[in-house]
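FOLDING PROBLEM:
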Amino acid sequence: MTAFGISWSGEPDIARLSGGTGTRLRTFGIAVLAALPAACGPVSPELAARQCEERARAADGPTGSVGVGFNDRGTSLATLSITIGSDYIRGLDPHEVYDACVRRKTGHAPIRPPDLGE
């Protein structure tokens, strides 16, 4: 088991990590920074299509869900969730939103038309 802690000397903006925690945090930070360029690169056309379909559906109109139930104490529970996308509020065409999204993510035209559940 590794012990670690944080000490503060009373000086503003200075805290020291003990027990090798600082080294682990630096190593973790370097690994995260090294992975960022890969995370920002182009995605596969199929993944982009799936992700962009969600955005296009949000541009097509509000979406939501309603849930009603009872817990084990007999109390009724109800949930309501409504999502209104900014593209819908701006009045953008869902097909244009899909096309622009796929082009932004892949650098290419979509491989298939969007499935908006129409």
Observations:
- The CA atoms of residues 45 and 111 lie 7 Å apart.
- The beta strands are 5-8, 15-18, 63-70, 76-83.
- The chain is about 45% helix and 20% strand.
- The first helix runs from residue 21 to 40.
